[in-house]
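User: Continuing from earlier, I have the next pair ready.

Assistant: Great, send them over.

User: Here they are, in order.

Assistant: Folding the first of the pair now:
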Amino acid sequence: MTSTLFRNVHLLDLASEDGMTSATDLLVADGCIAKTGIALTVPDGARVIDGKGDLLMPGLINAHFHSSVNHMKGRLPCLPLELFMLYESPALETLRPTPRQAYLRTMLGCIEMLRNGTTAVMDDCFFVPEPAPEIIDAVAQAYADSGIRATLALDEPELSEIEKLPFLDELAPADLRDGLARRPKLAAPDLLSLYDHLIGRWHGAEGGRIGAAVSCSAPQRVTPDYFAALDALSRDHDLPVFAHMLETKLQRVLGHENFGGRSLVRYTHDLGLLSERMQVIHAIWVDGDDLDLIAETGANVAHNPISNLRLGSGIMPLREMLDRHIPVALGVDEAIADDAVNMWSVMKTAGMIHSLSGDDPDLWPSAREILYAATRGGSHAMRRPGLGTLQPGAPADLTLVDLSSLAFLPLNDLVRQLVHVENGSSVRLTMVAGRVVAEAGRVTTVDEAALLDEAREVFAEIAPSLRRAASEVADLLPVYRAMHDRAAARDVGITRKLKRGLG
């Protein structure tokens, strides 16, 4: 692999007062950071990039993502999660993609991320109406071709809607009950066979740039036996485990209804499955006991603030997590619940939303804490040591940021301006594993223009199918709204939302 020498760059340094080093050089060789220093010697055949006094920083890590709806931006209004999912991921034959469609929709997210300096993504990919080897391969191939670093899991529930949600059993009318009581087509042995395919074909591919993870989707959506089988896969191959937990108040109520008063965090712990390999996704409606369990077991949390606002889920107790030294990473969640795949806007939102959590500004997160979560926090979640740093030997996943752009004019506080001002437009160059994958606003690893033209045509053709799918689930909306309203009326002892009223 050709080496690259960055000349005259400032390196991000969150430990320093200025947030960056003085101007220096950084050498990349064999896909890793080789060394830093003044006036480094240019190796034979190396590409020299003039940093022009700009900032070289670790690439951002999108630590929670669902690529399956990259083509559905703006299609839905703001809705509570349980209603939103009716339209986002119904298991309908109408929505079955071709491998090419799956490839293109994944590539849309890759292009947006790489252009904006996101170098790694953790994709908890769901497959409608169910996963298949050729669709898994199409998603993974898009990640391979784009040049991004990716960890891919199969987000597939195992239980029926009635089994995994409260109150549906009594609320559902007779003509809908059979459908709501029907389990997904693929049972645990089928899903484990697909994991054998994913791990055998893709884990460690592209020189380790592509990896596998496992996903239960959420503890209430699978049987304990399948959950344990996924954990065993994770342990055997050292894979992250994805688990959505306590994203909504309804999920807190679910613990009272279905798990003997235990929260989903406590339930998972009681199964012996809460571990340092687990990524607890969202963790909004958690209490102190839940956070103590997460901290004791070494699990990490994925914070998705824009999605949480879009779906009205609530405000995660970030300070309480950081005080317990729980590793926190940041994620987009998905294009349909963010309407962008932009980690800069995620950082900005995370840096502001927690000011509503209390009146003591000393407890609000600092810009440095947020930027740390978007880099080192993501590295911890991916189980990729060194990622998210500029240490010698670390993977060369880098972003070059133009400090002469309007976002940094004048340069008052680098870290605050990265978190609160920058939107991705200042990214000059993105590098993954020592390879330049985007430069001057364009992805360089694929024919970006041709792919976008094809995607525009393909997804225009399937728009009627998306509308038909929405009409197919319309009958369920009143039932799910009644379920949501019943849960919303419950007193669960905590709140993660602003209260209405004029006082």
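And the other member of the pair:
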Amino acid sequence: MNPRIEEKQSGIAIYWGTFDPVTIAHFEIIKSVLQSNFKKVIVAINDNPSTEKIYKSPGESRSDMLKIMALSLPRKDHERLEIAIQKNKEMEYTNIKKAYPDEKVTAIVGQDSFEKFGAHCKWCDAVQVVPRGEKYDALEQQIAHFGLKNTFILPMDKRFLTTSSTAVRTAVNTNNISVLSSSLHPKVVSYINKQGFFRGDFTSTDHQKLRVFKNWLQKRKWQKAHVSPKP
């Protein structure tokens, strides 16, 4: 692991992601960040419809999956964790900094995003990059290339370096038990199966429409059962 890890600190941490679905690796990252003794750790679930991203499950459902896993956290960590859904740009770094002007704000950034936007990290108070794979040397070189003195690699267990939400969605669709058991919390697997997520080509929008229809159908059934017919 990279020896240049920032020591324990106060302040605010913000970790962005689609979490579609939330994996054990995602949760290990959250726990690792919580161990850094931040006053607050914000997990921002990207659900912005204006991006080119095609979400496979609704943002509210991804929030539910995270909350299911967060139940296992100690109370002191649970109280510091905030799970938010970003529908626009309200959880961008500059807005979080405005909300907490007197706090050091640390951005938690995935390696894929860092490779695209690393040059912008120089404007942050601090950055921790979540590695993908085991190419630490290449990641170190990128940090040096951007001339970043505020950026460090978040230590990660090697078991989680290759976990992929894309692979997990495929595993759900093909019922690959091996991948599911190693990548998802059992209660998250149960939740996904109950909601019917990641089957076929259904998107978040499809599931939201289906949910509206089911709610309407239940309301109609209730009305027929409780409203007396006119004489």
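Worth noting for the second one:
The longest helix spans residues 204-226. The beta strands are 12-17, 40-46, 81-86, 105-110, 126-130, 151-153.
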